[in-house]
Structures
1.
Amino acid sequence: MLSSMCLASGPGFRLDAVTCVADHRGWSAPEVSDRYHVVLVRRGVFRRMTRGRAAVSDPTMAYVGVPGEEERFAHPAGGDVCTSLSLTPGLWRTLTAAMPLHDGTGRHTRSATPTAKATALTAPAFYVDARLDLAHRRLLRAARDGDIAFALPETMTLLLRAALTPPGSRDAARTSNTGRIVDTAREAFAADIQETATLTSLAAHLGVSPYQLSRAFTRELGVSLTHYRNRVRVGRALDRLEEGAPSLAELAADLGFADQAHLTRTIRHHVGHTPTALRHLLTTPTP
């Protein structure tokens, strides 16, 4: 069962919160859109098939869909909550003009025409680092504030820039073996199973060596396994801060950090802000 709630809309765009409570392992019927759409996951995990390739989507991996592209979905782990930003081709060209869009091979297409740049989006998924996660949350905040003339388009443009020029995107170069290792590990992190507590226990759970696991993350996502694990924990910290968590010491303990200082250092490294500053960014109403 799929439900969608419009958070904001304007000329050429629509921002929706999409909730899926489906629990099916098989692929859905094909879906085709006449718009571009950027989909970022708030909670849960699912799989998307497009152009003959499957990718796992969760809060650390999002995707861009293009007009006329056929998509199929599977939800072997249950439901999920996503943010879907859809744009008409005309608004897409306007907002992405002059952006150095990633072509999925590590090259950029700054000098290409809008049409060529659109077709250069070959990677079905891209890594969501903590800064892009924050841009996602600020977009939702702008939607709540209701300024569709300036604040919302501005945060939308910032999000698109972060999404379309992901620093660690290596998806087009993935191999089937390393891709499966990374996808399975990411699903384990998303489920927060006990085996994700250490490198050796996670490698044993996946049936690979620690070296294979570590190398797979660097090769597939362009970031280390440790960086990815901290990225997941920072995302959970942002959730708690957004909900108004009162104690940073308790938050650090709940998320497995050594202490509050360790939590603060890690969040500052990933997002560029302290937890105190993030509380203001995510919870204080705009004047």
Note: The chain has two domains: 2-128, 172-283.
2.
Amino acid sequence: MIVVYGIKEYLNPIKAGLSEVIHGCMQSVLGMPEDKRAHRFMPMDAEDFYYPGGRTPAYTVIEINMMQGRTPETQKVLIKALFREIESELGIAPADIEVTIKEQPAHCWGFRGMTGDEARDLRYAIEV
């Protein structure tokens, strides 16, 4: 699952495009299937979204929650692809993008009535 935070006046107009870019990176780097898109957008009022100095109001936070298994190298490729593609497709500078990958063991995930370590029918690899 991916959660995206930003100031609503900047995030709302680009939600669909940002979802496309994020999912494209997830597909090309991690091999995620087309229908495996779980994005949550959290547009916020400016007074509720504090961000570091040197950033603009376009500052956007992307939290990627995933099961453990991807190598550090794969994770770095994903982060760099996001910086590159978001800038190319949406014009947001890498300085205004923050990406955090949060990994949890498969047994900490629950979906379709089972835990992640019980799932045997995933159409994508976890260990890449």
Note: The chain has a mean pLDDT of 95.
